[in-house]
Automatic annotation (TrEMBL):
DNA-binding stretch(es), residue numbering of this chain: 124-219
Protein name (database record): Response regulator transcription factor
UniProt source species: Streptomyces coryli
Segments forming domain Response regulatory: 2-116
Example GO molecular function: transcription cis-regulatory region binding
Length: 220
């Protein structure tokens, strides 16, 4: 996975790059908005970590220009600013997520991984397991050819399981994916409610509980 960091604080950028490289990412760094826009246009990146108060071209404008050019690369914005208005401005220009300083490096890595997983799910438009078909683009679910209506949250929970067929997915991983860090209390028991609803709608033999570990989507 290749990441681009666009951040004017050189010490912060270097620290983030060092940590992300230790996580196994390939990382490029630039320090102003114009260079960031140019670098993003020159090479395919899996994700961009984008500062806001950049010289040359601020992060909002960089993000807006990338989206206007049809570039759907995931963008995680960093800022010294605070408040709902600033967050809304970043998201309105097309950013996928937002992190306000000071922040934990662990949280940064978690956000990056969540965005990368989400993009991977969108890239794999149709996921099939036995007679179950999950269409991530159309957000439709069919079993044995019959469409099954799901709520948005039910679909997200099922999508996360479908991205890892035959693998155990923990409640924490489902929360991380389906609630996108907006679920403040983080109570993993809410996952059980949605899994139960999915079992009722999908029927037996698909979602299996792995005691103490999570859930597995598997046709038996």
């Amino acid at each position: 996975m290749r990441l681009l960091i666009v951040e004017d604080e050189k010490r912060l950028a270097a620290s983030l790059a060092k940590g992300l490289k230790a996580q196994g990412f390939a990382v490029d760094v630039v320090h102003d908005g114009i260079a960031g826009l140019h670098r993003a246009a020159m090479a395919p990146y899996d994700l961009i970590v984008l500062g806001v108060l950049l010289p040359g071209l601020n992060g909002y404008r960089v993000c807006a220009r990338l989206r206007a050019a049809g570039d759907d690369v995931p963008i995680l914005m960093l800022t010294r600013k605070d408040g709902e208005y600033d967050e809304a401005e970043g998201l309105d220009t097309g950013a996928d997520d937002y992190l306000t300083r000071p922040f934990s490096f662990v949280v940064l890595v978690a956000r990056i991984k969540a965005l990368l997983r989400y993009r991977a799910g969108r890239t794999r438009a149709a996921l099939a397991l036995g007679d179950l078909r999950v269409d991530a683009v159309a957000r439709r679910v069919l079993r044995a050819g019959a469409e099954i209506p799901l709520t948005k949250k039910e679909f997200s929970v099922l999508e996360q399981l479908a991205l890892h067929p035959g693998e155990v997915v923990s409640k924490a991983e489902i929360l991380d994916y389906a609630w996108d860090f907006a679920y403040e209390s983080g109570d993993p028991n809410i996952v059980e409610v949605y899994v139960s609803a999915l079992r009722r709608k999908l029927g037996p033999g698909l979602i299996h509980t792995v005691r103490g570990a999570g859930y597995r989507l598997e046709a038996r």
